[in-house]
């Protein structure tokens, strides 16, 4: 995990952190984050970040966070930060994942719900922030760059020759 956080450092030099969870099925979940502080510079907005029993690590920006913040505050949510990540997580907590249809921005995130052990992965509808997945015998790995997944696994990733060939023939689609 330390090697992955070290690789992530260039992505966000302002802070880094991780959380480790074991769900009821005995599966391990790790959320790692390297933060570039832009909207809320205070350490209280560092990630992984929690609202209730749900934790999130997010790469990106929620453009309509002010509007959503206003709605959530009017519904009684009390904010601890000025972070758009808190707005995103609070909106999901109060309104469910359907609120993502109303979110405008660029993001890729992973959240862990401590109440039921569910992991949610999401990226913005245009894929501006990448979210890579790798399924292996020992579990599912995800990250914003393939080299982070390789660092977590402790092994290089083998290229998918079929997809590489498809890319060379058809270009990016």
Blueprint of the fold:
Elements lengths: L1 H7 L6 E8 L5 E8 L13 E3 L2 E9 L2 H10 L9 H12 L9 E9 L4 E6 L8 E5 L2 E5 L2 H8 L7 H10 L3
Antiparallel strand pairs: 1-2, 3-4, 4-5, 5-6, 7-8
Which regions contain 5 or more consecutive residues with pLDDT less than 50? none
Query: Helix count, per DSSP?
Result: 5
**What portion of residues belong to β-strands?**
25-35%
* Outline type: globular
H/E order of the elements? HEEEEHHEEEEHH
**Overall strand count:** 8
Instruction: For the largest sheet, list the strands in their spatial order.
Output: 3-4-5-6
Over all CA atoms, what is the radius of gyration?
A: 17 Å
**Helical content band:** 25-40%
- Span of the ends, CA to CA: 33 Å
Count of folded domains: 1
CATH class: Alpha Beta
Structural class: alpha+beta
CATH architecture: 4-Layer Sandwich
What does this structure look like?
This protein has 173 residues and is of the alpha+beta class. It is 27% helix and 31% strand. It has five helices and eight strands. It is globular, with a radius of gyration of 17 Å.
Q: What structural keywords apply?
A:
27% helix; Glutamine Phosphoribosylpyrophosphate, subunit 1, domain 1; 31% strand; 5 helices; alpha+beta; 173 residues; 8 strands; two-stranded antiparallel ribbon; four-stranded antiparallel β-sheet; single chain
């Amino acid at each position: 995990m330390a090697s992955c956080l070290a690789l992530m450092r260039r992505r966000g030099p302002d802070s880094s952190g991780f959380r480790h969870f074991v769900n009821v099925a005995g599966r391990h979940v790790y959320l790692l984050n390297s933060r570039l502080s832009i909207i809320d510079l205070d350490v209280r907005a560092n990630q992984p970040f929690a609202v209730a029993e749900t934790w999130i690590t997010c790469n990106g920006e929620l453009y309509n966070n002010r509007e959503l913040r206003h709605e959530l505050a009017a519904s009684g949510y009390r904010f601890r930060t000025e972070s758009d990540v808190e707005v995103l997580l609070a909106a999901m907590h109060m309104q469910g994942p359907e609120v993502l249809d109303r979110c405008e921005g660029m993001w890729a995130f992973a959240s862990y719900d401590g109440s039921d052990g569910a992991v949610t992965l999401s990226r913005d509808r245009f894929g501006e922030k990448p979210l890579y997945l790798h399924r292996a015998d020992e579990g599912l790995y995800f990250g914003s760059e393939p080299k982070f997944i390789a660092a977590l696994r402790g092994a290089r990733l083998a290229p998918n020759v079929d997809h590489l060939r498809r890319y060379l023939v058809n270009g990016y689609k």
